[in-house]
Amino acid sequence: MKESPQSKKLDEMLRSSKLAAGGFMGHDSRSVYEIIDNDLAIISESGYTKEQVAARMHEITNKAIELLGNWEEIDEKLLARVDEAKGSLVCPWPHSGRYAKRVTYVKSIETDETIQWSDLNIHFIEEHGFFEGKGAYFRIEPKELIKIIF
Ligand SMILES: [Zn+2]
Fold first, then answer.
1. Burial letters for 42-67: b for 16+ Cβ neighbours within 10 Å, e otherwise?
2. Which residues does residue 104 pair with via DSSP β-bridges, in sequence order?
3. Ligand 1 geometric centre to CA of 135 (Å)
4. What is the four-CA torsion angle of 9, 126, 102, 91, rounded to 10 degrees?
5. Ligand 1 centre and the CA of 33: distance in Å?
6. Which residues of the chain have pLDDT under 50?
7. Segment holding 34, helix H or strand E
8. For 19-55, how does the pLDDT look when each residue is reduced to its tens digit (9 = 90+)?
9. Distance 36 CA to ligand 1 centre (A)
10. How does the average pLDDT of the chain come out, rounded?
């Protein structure tokens, strides 16, 4: 599916360590579009859109930024904190925009389950429906994400 020269180039870029240590694909042998299709199917089966998921992630990250790195309740359901590093990341899809090297850590008060994401993860989900490949450091399992944040 969609094996155009551009998609081949994108696939190579996502697998390389040029933009992120270990790349964004992990050990996943599927094409980037197969990964996206599978993950978006899970999101829609759960009754959400990628935009709703990304909006909730933005909301949590923005609240956590105000907490200055401390674990605090961001609402009745979740604790969160952010870590910021210097510098920024670019998106491998060809378009402009840089993303802060910020990681948001989230914990469910009820179940103790945790999940983490970078600002780039939020962008990937919102714009590209991409949760990264299996085995990638910042791979997010859509089911787990939805279970924790909603
Ligand atoms: Zn992008």
1. ebeeeebebeebbebbeebbebbbee
2. 82, 117
3. 20
4. 20
5. 14
6. none
7. helix 32-45
8. 888 899 999 999 999 999 999 999 999 999 999 999 9
9. 13
10. 93
